[in-house]
Specification:
Oligomer: single chain
Radius of gyration: 49 Å
Strand content: 25-35%
Strand order of the largest sheet: 1-28-27-26
Largest sheet: 4 strands, antiparallel
Helix content: 25-40%
Mean pLDDT: 84
Structural class: alpha+beta
Distance between the termini: 104 Å
Number of strands: 55
Length: about 1350
């Protein structure tokens, strides 16, 4: 679908007066200077330089004339036969027919001369060809020999051309592949038996008898075309770099002199004249014929020369016609040859072509010199002629140029693969440029012909099918002045045509504005006025935006100018708003409006794509790997060199218009993978279709998610629910978007939704897809700004996907009720229309509710059964399809409607032998007992108990057993709350159940409520609720001994629970045993309370026998504990200092080692012969290559559960010298400090007792020891617990981030597994493995906050 557009022309009217047609030129690829050598007489010549070609007035300099002054052989130089600029030595090599080889140096040589005669060939030279690397030169001598020399002109080989041998690589017949066994198509087997008589082959009458040389692009082979005098025909011989003959072409009748080897190396091109046609023929390197194509020329046309451009995409053919000469540019795609451009040269005044050649670096720059001594430089670019009008009625017309044929295809209606097309428009002459107008939504065309005429086509009828061919309105003539040539046109209005033209007389560009008038009847165009507007400088692009009316001109450096055309005013050329230029010259450009809101308030933007794949928006670089782009009504769509298509939304601010990394989103609609090398032909506006062309030429129409969603959102904004639904259904978009896009609008237009999406199947499909999830936040978040109100209101809401409120992803109450709300609204609307017609949809609204309202669905079926049995059966079958039949059966059974149960069972897969006996058995039971059985079968235990309680008194024992079986005690208390006897019975069994389960406290309450005080007392005793127990003992009239026994038992339980104060109260007050009470208090270190009890009960003897020894023992234990804590603290704080000192010394040693130079590494090749280029390893770097990780992707995690536990145990032990010793010491000291802090109350109580008993020495010793421990802890607190370093925080954060990222990647891979290739899956697994390695790093926790110690007073001042 590509065409060649002529960007710029430079035409020097005349640089000299050549005496003949032998004019040769060469281009300096570094500076762009053109060197032209030509003959001015029989033995005279001149060399000129043309420089500064980009300016309107290039400079022409005469460098040297031939022969040089004082040359004794001035009459023997002959004609110029070849010129070549040599980059390495900055010199021009000129070859003369009499054999002289001359070098002209740009800078003087050591001898001070610029002209150097390097040698001469006595027999003369007929042609010359330098190798692509300029290391070798091949010449054909006058004797018909191949002469090969180095760049220093040292002879390597000289071999005759016309030899009998066919070469070293000639094909050998080894017995297979015979012609008789090959397929010959429609010619049949007779073709295999036909003998070709090569003896009749002869020369072409157009042959110029000369030799031709051509090198392959890599410089390993060259070919020579010459006449074979022995056989009377022309042949092509292929030589290697040493000038040794390799192959000779097969015999071809009337093969001509033209020769060019395609730089890519696969084809050698020449021409062949046949009686009825003229062909361009191709040969392989082995000399075999390899196809051809026919020129569309009359029989008297002569093929002068052929030349491939440097990237092998365009073949230039120089033709000599009776009326003049021309150069045709041919290209091949999908095995069809297209004529893309034709350059015309009039032979009047010797203006015909003398020589031409392609630029050696710029692939689409053609240099031409004419016989009259003029020079032309034509620059082309690949272009697509498409209708870019942003209108829904735009047919998506694409035009492809093929000579005088314009192949047109409307892609909105049909996708016709090339080389075919929907229509082929035949015009009178070869086509040069095509422009689409604004008429009929942009589908009308203006076609510029090579002879400076313009043809106008109209496509008015777009509704008739099949679509009629565009109608030719007529032609107009543009060429008023012969020196002015229009190269690009733009049909900018119904009556205005703008052209970009070049005037060779003044060497300047200008624009021409032509006003047209169309005849009312025939619609034939005619010119009413013509205005030429001169331009400053040379321009390469005339761009017209059909939608916004922008007319722009672009210069080669990216400078932009705007053309303003108004009625009754002269056209004006000026700056285009704030955008004055692009950062560099862009071969492809477009304009658009970026921003949200009305189109008038959006910002103007120009999009430019440079030759180096840089994509610009105004002066900002968007991408540096763009291969093609197109403007859609919602997106800037472009393809990249990484084989993906990107979609940048236009509904965003210009400052935020850039590529955004959306890799965190589960589905990124802004990017789509495409086939390697794909380029955009057209992005159909207001459509989902993106047309791509593959490198081999075939077309592919895709529907990217971004464009599908844009069409869906546009339809929903217009409440066009059917279009939105059909689009989503066709392209597998989640149908929840129909509601989630704008819930308020959807609920307000449910009636319209049902009317538009009226098909029952469509409604059922929509209802079946509903779920409690906002897909505009999870699946399809809107890129940029747009019409989604929720996205604008909640821009920071995280994109978390939940399915039905999955664990870890809570959903809002509004979202939780989404499905129910939609189902209720749709059902209400369907019931107002025709319930029977939409019965399946109504049932779907019941089934899809959360939870499913199957009971209402079955009630509707039961009601429908009485009205229409057949309809009810069909509806039931549909319901069974939606819901589990077993669940439907159970719901029907739970409704106690046996007729409904049988109807469900009959249309299910259930075996009647399974359910009929069960139903028959139920029919024989009493009403409530029957319902009890049903509910029990359905495991509705509370309902079953309710029905069983109503079945009669005889079933109360069954009720009790059922309550116990299903743990229905609390519900049973409600059921039997009105019957005191049964209520108490339930309480007793509830208490028994609680006691068995160990909840003795609640069991005691249940027994007490039931009036069973003995069981209540026992339950309270087991629960250690001594207050309730002794109260019940008093109520049960326990005697003192029984009460004392109960109290002693309870006291023992309290002591086990460390409740020594309560145990002392029980023993003293209820057991009347003060001695045991004091012993219990002393065991709990409650010395003051023990003294109080002794004095309360006047047992002063216990002070001596129990209290005083107990205080002494407590003092001894505290002193020992304090000393142990002091010793542990001193030992661990010392070791902690040692560990940290060792860490610092180790770090300093490693730093010194890294800084020390390693002489052994000098002059060492770090990349050995066996080193993998994909490896990320070296002496100084870690493995960071994805490929190096992919080989480990199949391994399991480094730590299994068992190894992890073992590792944790080692970490907890903190072995001396291990990596976790410091962490262990810090944790141990933290526990020790907390232990010291918890000892404060015991120390305080002991000090008070010692002070009261005047044991001041012991009190002082205890207080000093404990104070020392606290002081040491306070002094070392800042040493033990230090603030974490940045490195530690970074590492810890990296571990946490790696864990989270790993989870996210695993989830994404699971979601997109079916869309990923093997390579992508391997890369993803490698990334997960790499994240696992980071996440599983164990970082010693050597930092942390210091423990908070209590501020309560623990010491005694008087001590």
């Amino acid at each position: 679908m590509k065409n060649l557009t002529l960007l710029s022309q430079i035409h020097l009217a005349r640089f000299g007066r050549p005496a003949g047609k032998d004019i040769h030129h060469s281009v300096d690829p570094e500076t762009g200077h053109v060197y032209v050598a030509y003959s001015t007489g029989p033995a005279e010549g001149v060399l000129i330089k043309i420089s500064d070609l980009q300016s309107p007035y290039p400079e022409i300099t005469e460098l040297v004339t031939f022969p040089p002054e004082n040359d004794v052989h001035a009459d023997q130089w002959g004609q110029v036969v070849g010129v070549k600029f040599l980059v390495d030595i900055q010199a021009v090599c000129i070859i003369f027919s009499h054999g002289d080889v001359v070098l002209f140096h740009n800078e003087p040589t050591e001898t001070g001369e610029t002209l150097e005669i390097v040698g001469s060939v006595d027999s003369g030279i007929s042609c010359m060809a330098w190798s692509p690397d300029e290391e070798l030169v091949i010449m054909v001598t006058g004797e018909g020999s191949i002469l090969e020399m180095t760049k220093d002109f040292d002879v390597i080989a000289e071999n005759p051309i016309d030899v009998e041998e066919t070469g070293e690589d000639v094909s050998v017949n080894v017995g297979w592949g015979k012609k008789e066994t090959q397929f010959h198509g429609t010619e049949g087997k007779q073709a295999a038996q036909r003998k070709v008589d090569t003896s009749s082959f002869t020369y072409s009458p157009d042959d110029d008898d000369g030799h031709r040389l051509s090198w392959r692009g890599d410089g390993t082979y060259f070919c020579c075309s010459s006449k074979d005098r022995r056989h009377g025909r022309r042949v092509i011989r292929v030589y290697n770099r040493e000038a040794i003959l390799q192959t000779t072409s097969e015999s071809v009748d009337m093969l001509e002199h033209g020769l060019s080897w395609r730089p890519s190396g696969n084809l050698i091109t020449s021409s062949q004249r046949l009686p009825h046609r003229h062909d361009i023929v191709f040969f392989e390197r082995n000399g075999l014929r390899h196809g051809e194509f026919t020129l569309r020329e009359p029989s008297d046309t002569i093929v002068k020369e052929l030349a491939w451009n440097c990237d092998s995409t365009v073949l230039a053919v120089w033709l000599q016609r009776t009326a003049g000469s021309c150069i045709q540019l041919w290209t091949m795609n999908n095995y069809k040859w297209y004529l893309k451009q034709e350059l015309l040269y009039n032979d009047d005044e010797s203006a015909g072509v003398a020589n031409f050649q392609w630029d050696v670096e710029a692939a689409l720059v053609l240099h031409v010199v004419t016989q009259s001594g003029s020079y032309q430089r034509n620059q082309y670019c690949w272009d697509t002629y498409i209708n870019e009008m942003l209108a829904p009625e735009n047919l998506g017309t694409v035009a492809v140029v093929d000579g005088a044929n314009l192949m047109v295809t409307p892609f909105r209606i049909m996708n016709v693969p090339p080389p075919m097309s929907a229509f082929t428009l035949v015009v009178p002459y070869a086509i040069q440029h095509v422009s689409f107008s604004t008429l009929h939504h942009g589908d009308d065309m203006a076609v510029l012909l090579a002879d400076q005429r313009v043809a106008f086509y109209e496509m008015a009828d777009k509704t008739t099918r099949p679509l009629p061919e565009p109608k030719l309105l007529g032609l107009i003539e543009l060429s008023e002045i012969p020196s002015v040539a229009v190269r690009q046109i733009a049909w900018v209005g119904s009556d205005t045509l703008v052209g970009l033209q070049y005037d060779s007389d003044i060497s300047a560009d200008s624009i021409v504005v032509i006003k047209l008038a169309f005849d009312e009847e025939s619609k034939a165009p005619k010119i009413t006025s013509r205005t030429d507007v001169p331009l400053e400088g040379l321009f390469q692009r005339l761009y017209f935006n059909q939608t916004y009316g922008d007319i722009l001109l672009q210069q080669a450096d990216g400078n932009l100018m705007s053309v303003e055309i108004k009625e009754d005013e002269e056209p004006k050329v000026g700056k285009w708003m704030e955008v004055h230029r692009l950062p560099e010259g862009c071969l492809w450009m477009g304009t658009t409006r970026i921003g949200s809101g009305h189109i008038e308030y959006r910002e103007k933007a120009v999009i430019g794509l440079a030759r180096n794949n840089r994509l610009y928006v105004n002066d900002r670089l968007i991408s540096s790997e763009t291969t093609s782009f197109c403007l859609h009504n919602h997106f800037l769509v472009f393809t990249t060199a990484t084989h993906s298509a990107r979609f940048l939304p236009l509904e965003t601010s210009l400052s935020e218009f850039k590529i955004v990394d959306n890799s965190t989103l589960p589905y990124d609609e802004s990017i789509r993978r495409v086939e390697r090398g794909s380029k955009i032909v057209l992005a159909l506006p207001f459509s989902v279709n993106l047309i791509l062309q593959m490198p081999r030429g075939n077309l592919e129409t895709v529907a990217p998610r971004a464009m599908v969603l844009s069409v869906t959102r546009d339809a929903l904004d217009k409440c066009d629910f059917r279009t939105a639904f059909v689009t989503c259904r066709k392209h597998r978009i989640d149908l929840n978007i129909l509601y989630d896009h704008n819930p308020k609008v959807f609920m307000e237009n449910v009636t319209e939704f049902v009317k538009q999406v009226k098909d029952v199947d469509y409604l059922n499909l929509f209802l079946s897809f509903l779920r409690s999830e906002d897909v505009t936040q999870t699946l399809y978040p809107l890129s940029g700004s747009g019409s989604s109100l929720k996205q604008l209101q909640n821009p920071t809401q995280p994109y978390t996907r939940s399915k039905g409120g999955a664990k870890g992803a809570p959903i809002s109450p509004e979202l939780a009720e989404k499905v129910n709300r939609i189902c209720d609204a749709v059902r209400k609307e369907l019931q107002t229309l025709d319930r029977n017609t939409y019965i399946n949809s109504v049932l779907t609204t019941y089934v899809r509710k959360s939870p499913p309202d199957l009971e209402s669905a079955l009630l509707l079926l039961a009601e429908l059964k009485d009205q229409d049995q057949a309809l009810a059966e069909d509806a039931l079958k549909f319901t069974i399809f939606l819901a589990d039949v077993d669940r439907l059966f159970d719901v029907a059974l739970g409704m106690y409607d046996f007729a409904l149960v049988l109807m469900v069972a009959q249309w299910s897969q259930k075996d009647p032998r399974e359910y009929l006996p069960f139903l028959n058995e139920l029919r024989t039971l009493e009403k409530y007992y029957q319902r009890f059985k049903i509910d029990d079968h359905l495991k509705k235990y509370q309902g079953a108990l309710q029905n069983l309680s109503q079945a009669g008194e005889k079933y109360f024992a069954d009720c009790v057993a059922y309550i116990k079986q299903h743990n229905l005690f609390k519900f049973a208390l409600k059921v039997f709350g009105s019957d005191p006897v049964k209520h108490k019975a339930v309480l007793l069994i509830y208490g028994d159940s609680l006691s068995v389960n160990g909840d003795h406290a609640q069991a005691g309450v249940a027994y007490a409520m039931a009036g069973d005080k003995e069981k209540a007392l026992e339950a309270y005793r087991e629960a250690s609720h001594w207050r309730e127990a002794v109260v019940l003992a008093q109520q049960l009239k326990y005697d003192p001994s029984a009460t004392a026994y109960l109290a002693r038992g309870l006291a023992e339980q309290l002591k086990v629970d460390k409740r020594f104060t309560e145990a002392g109260v029980l023993l003293a007050e209820y057991a009347k045993d003060s001695e045991e009470a004091i012993s219990a208090l002393l065991e709990g270190r409650l010395w003051s309370e023990a003294i109080r009890i002794a004095y309360l009960y006047n047992r002063l003897d216990l002070i001596v026998t129990h209290v005083t020894p107990g205080i002494a023992d407590g003092h001894h234990d505290l002193m020992e504990s304090i000393r142990d804590m002091q010793e542990q603290f001193d030992k661990q704080i010392k070791r902690l200092r040692e560990v940290r000192d060792q860490k610092i010394e180790k770090a300093l040693a490693e730093a010194a080692e890294d800084m020390a130079p390693d002489d052994g590494l000098d002059n060492v090749d770090m990349m050995s012969d066996t080193t993998s280029m994909a490896s990320g390893f070296s002496r100084y770097t870690a493995a960071n290559s994805v490929l190096s990780k992919s080989s480990q992707s199949s391994r399991s995690s480094q730590y299994t559960a068992r190894l992890k536990k073992r590792h944790d145990r080692k970490r907890a032990r903190g072995k001396k010298g291990s990596a976790y010793e410091e962490e262990y010491l810090i944790n141990s000291l933290r526990k020790l400090i907390l232990r010291v802090d918890s000892t404060k109350p015991d120390v305080h109580a002991m000090l008070q007792c010692l002070a009261a008993s005047m044991s001041l020495q012991r009190a002082k010793a205890l207080q000093q020891e404990f104070a020392k421990v606290l002081q040491d802890i306070e002094e070392h607190m800042h040493i033990i617990f230090v603030a974490p370093t940045e490195e530690y925080l970074t590492k810890k954060k990296a571990v946490e981030d790696a864990k989270n990222e790993r989870k996210k990647l695993i989830k994404q891979n699971q979601t997109n597994a079916h869309l990923m290739s093997r390579h992508e899956e391997a890369v993803a697994q490698a990334q997960i493995a790499q994240l696992e390695e980071i996440a599983e790093q164990e970082i010693a926790d050597i930092y942390g906050e210091a423990p908070v110690m209590s501020k309560e007073t623990w010491d005694v001042d008087l001590v």
